[in-house]
Structures are given as structure tokens and as C-alpha cells.
Amino acid sequence: MRRILIANRGEIALRVVRACRDLGLSPVMVYSEADRGSLPVRLADAAVPIGEAQASASYLNAAALIEAALRSGADAIHPGYGFLAENADFAEAVAQAGLVFIGPPPAAMRAVGDKVEARRLMAKSGVPIIPGLNDRAADGGTIAAFARQAGYPILLKAAAGGGGKGMRVVRAEGELAAALRGARSEAKASFGDDGVYAEKFLEGVRHVEIQMIADAHGHAVWLGERECSLQRRHQKLIEESPSMAVDPALRARMGALAVQVAHASGYRNAGTVEFLLDGAGQPYFMEVNARLQVEHPVTEMVTGLDLVRAQIEVAAGAPLPFRQEEVKPRGWAIECRILAEDPANGFRPHPGRIAAVRLPAGPGIRVDTALQPGDEVSLHYDALIAKLVAWGADRDEAVRRMLRALREFQIAGIRTTIPFHIEVLEGGDFRAGRFDIAWVDRMMPVLAPRLAAGGDAAEIAAVAAAVAAYEEARRGAPRGAEGPAPGDTASPWVMAGRRVQMQGRGSRGRWA
Amino acid sequence: MKVIARIGEREIVLEVSRTEAGGHAVGIAGRGVAAQAHGTGPFRTIDVDGRAAEASAWRTSRPGLAGLPQTWDVSVGGRIYAVHLADPLRPAGGVDAAATGGPAEIRAVMPGKVVAVLVVEGREVQAGQGLVVVEAMKMENEITAPRAGRVTSVTVQPGEPVEAGAILVVLGPPGDGS
Predict the structure, then answer these.
(1) What end-to-end distance do the CA atoms of chain A give, in Å?
(2) Which of A13, A43, A256, B143 is packed most tightly, with the most Cβ within 10 A?
(3) What was the ipTM of the complex prediction?
């Protein structure tokens, strides 16, 4: 394996570019019209345009991706996460084109990637599952009947999905029809499959997942757990490893279950087995994420392993470079997802142009981001713009380092989830580990007004705004996130350039 | 330049001038405090009464409105402050029509695509009732009624792309029972 095509964008594309460099391999990027100037594209050895900004015309275009790989002389494709990462047809097409797909084999992906098939397989293998339907194309009537029998609340899930897309909690029969319609259309938009199934919605539970990796020689190891209970509408916001809710005995039990899942499904490469953990410490299999996950750095920080490197090595046919007893997690790691969303206003998407960025650094801090000044955070893609990871010898040190880094992190031009993370990490519940998967949704009515009120630096903020406004007026060329003002006093050449740019943005900025 | 800065409920009158060193001196009325700003942006160090912090500010109101009032977002120590700047000679006034029951224009808060229209013209709606579903960043967001009223016009249809600020629905006063 010499050259890898990265079929993704943003921070995860950059992560794979870096792994390629560390292995002495040549990274090739693809890009949509919106990502031409992005950091991973700049840092790759070659970059291939694959289509318009909307994902369906670019990052979801399997034929264009495979053609780009063949034309650029790549011998493997890394799919990252999202887009086509868990699409078995894509993995199969990649193999048929004579390329290596860096991920699980299509058969294993089908066995675990389809949430309903996975539930059937786990039930057969003796892995505990959440009560629910094992019918991937359940109609409204079947789901309503299940809900009446199991009792509300129930959870609707996209059969082909993950990442919280196409998921809805339904608390009463009257909400079912609307929730089903929303879940189906989101599932269709995200995965091209509107199949939805239902399971009992467990309350007061935690989301704890096990990272595992398997090679082509029958070895599978687990790499500790990640606590991902802090999520909003099933979108994870903060992850940590280890989990305060898991003791060594439970960890070993869940690890063994994850390896059992890997063997039962013929799994290869990196994957995650997600569990819900009830108050009594009973884990229930939720699903397998048959890909590298957003939160993998948390595991990397405590184990010292490079998961992307291991993925590439395993895909190339090498045996796992470590055995189970050699995996010795150390210390504590926390990840905060920095999203282009305004947590003070219902996590409303907050696209815009990044005026300036300064990344935090220092002991124990890792930032995975492709953000550059001038980048346009667009509505076409996921709102994740950076992952901030802190490591400490213990949880308290990791938390303090994370707070330091969150306050250092400057992103000018858009609102982000940074204030939310500060508010959560400063709170007593987080410090004491008192939270479940509904904590964020339950607490937002309390947290949102506090976020809207800002902190104790109101005077400093007022002065900063007044000075910036004064300078803008003095320069006589007001310019902001919206583009140049009509009365802008720039040269004719600059104005002509901007007109072209704006026309381009206008045509791309539309949904097709 | 003299401005009234409003953050939440607080109002601060500020007077900004440039120093010879290229920084800024800022007077805060009523407190007899002089603040200083250093740097040329985007990140400036602001010192108020001996407390210093780094701040970045970006304008959120349209730049077409060259004068005041303006709105800015300011990031200080990981927190965001929404700052409204007004001319002290012409302070912003006005009554919110939406709160008083007068006509309210329900607008898209972000660019996206209309995926569903949940009301028709003439329909009575309650506060919090869904009006339009707009998809942005792959998430569906339901735009709800800020108050009770009667839908006087629906200006979008499913499938239509909308820009931020586009009018979706116009809400009139609640019906008279007819």
C-alpha cells in the first residue's frame, strides 16, 4: 500500500492525511466545490475535484470517488466517518475496482451496519439487547402496536443509520405520526434509506461504548470504553475515557462482549460497540459503528495508540501490532465537540465566515480541526468544526486542562459550542459524574439563559465591540460576515473580484 | 466616537478615541474609568479598571447599515456576549409588534430548505405551534409561532430554498371568533 485516497472532508480528512504521513504513505484528497481551499486539500500530495458542494453530488458520489482513486494511482480508500463510511455497497464497489477499502468487509458491515440485522445477530449470540422490533421496514401500524405493548416512550431509529440522524423519541401515541415522518425523511436524506424501526426507550441510562479492532488473522482486541452520555438529541457533545460508571469487572465484561460481537459478525478493522448502561450496571447492546468514530482520539490519548494507523495496517493485511494484555490505558481523556451551533439559542446552526482562529495548546491538549481563517462554515455539511481533547493523569487534571484550553480557543466570526462546554465542565454534576443520556436535554432550560447572559466580562466585551466599530467606521470600509457593503470604497479590480465571488457563492449556496 | 453599548439589561456609555501609540482609549461614563485596547484585531487586549482580557469582536448586523445601531458578537474567555451599539443622540426605541399582537413576520433564521409547511392561510395557531419546518445542516428545525394568532399569509412552499431573514409566514392578531 503506497497511496491512499481520502473520501471525506474537514477534520477527519486531515486526521487521515496525518496518519498517512506518519506511515510514509502518500495521501490524496478529493474535494467538493466548497472545499477547494481546505486544509486537508492543501496538505495532500494530490487533490481531485469530485463535484458540487452538496454531499449528494460529491462526497456521496461513489463512482466519482472510485474514479478519482484509480486516476490518481491510489491503492486504497479511507472513508473517514459519515458519508459512505458505513455503506457496504460502496465498500464492495471499492474492492471490485481492485482497491483496498480501509474498513470492515462488506459482509460484516451488512451484518452489523444494519441496526436491525445487528439486533438479530446479537440476540442469537447471547448479547443482551434492548426490547424492540427486529423488523427493518416496520410500518406505522406495527410500530404503534409495539409501542402500546412495550409502553411509551419508544425510540425510532433509522435501520441504516447512526450519528443521531433519523432518530426520534416518542412519548405518546399522538406524536408518533409526525415523529415517524421526520425520522423517515432524515434517514432518507442521510443514508438514502428510509427504513425505520422502534425500540423501548430506556431512561436514566448512560451511553458507554467499547472500541475494538480486529485483523484478518482472527485476532480481536478491545481498547477500553468511552463514556458518551453527554449528548443532545442523540448527538454526542462530550466524551471521556474511562467512564466513572464502569469498574474493572464491568469493563472486562463489556470488552469481552465487544470481542464476541466482532467474532460473531466476521468483523475486521476498527469498530465500536455501543451499549446503554442502566443504573444497576447492566449493559444492553445498542449498535455497532462499523467505522472510525468521531471520538476516537479519546481512546488514543489514554492508550497511546494511533487508531488510524492501526486501521491502515490491518487493512493492508498485517496482524494487529498489539495484544490484549499489552493495551494498558493510562490517565483520563475528555473530548469536547466544537460545533458551529449557538447553544444559547437551541443549538441553532450558525454558519458563516471564520474571521480568525487561535488554537489552544500546551500540556495534555490535542486539537483535531481543519479550520482556517477565511473558511466558510457552510450549511452543506456537518456542524463539527473542531475536536478539543484534553488528557490528564486523573479526571480532575483532564477537566482543568480542558477548561484552560476552552478559554484559550478563539474562533471569531461564528458562535460555537465552546461556552456550553465551559458551563458543563464547571458544573457540579459533571464534576461528580452525575449524568445520563438525557442530562443535556433536561438541563438546557437552565443552561441556555446562563449562556445567553454571557459571563462576568460584559464591560470588556462592550469596549471590544465599541473599539471594533470605531475602527470599522474610521477605515470607511465596513465589512462583515455578510460580505462587502454597497458603499464599499475598494478599487474597481477588488470590486469586480468580489462580484464574481458573490455570484459563485449565490449559485452554490442554494439547495438543489 | 460616543456610543451606548447594551448587553442584556445593561447599558454602558462609551467614548472611543485613538492613542498616539495606535491603541485605543475608552472612557466609561458614570464610572470615571478609562479602559484601554491594545492590538489591531482580530484579537484585542482590553483592560478595564485593571482587569485585562483578550477579546475578539465580529459584526452580526448587516454591513449595509453603515452607521449605528449595530450588533456585534464578542468572545471573551470562551464566553459570547451579544453587544448592541446605538447612537447616544438617537437611542433605539420601538415596540415589538410580535409581543403586542400586531402583525408579526415569521422569518427564517438561517438559510436552508423548506421541507414542510404545517399551516394554511386563515388558520388560528397557538403560541409554540409549529408553522414551517426548515432543513439546514441536515437537521430539521421547526419554526414555531411566537404567540397566538391567525395566519394571514404563507409565503413559502415545501422544497423551496430560503435565505436567512426570508419571510415564511405572516401572523395577524388572533381571530375574533368568527
Answers:
(1) 38
(2) A13
(3) 0.83
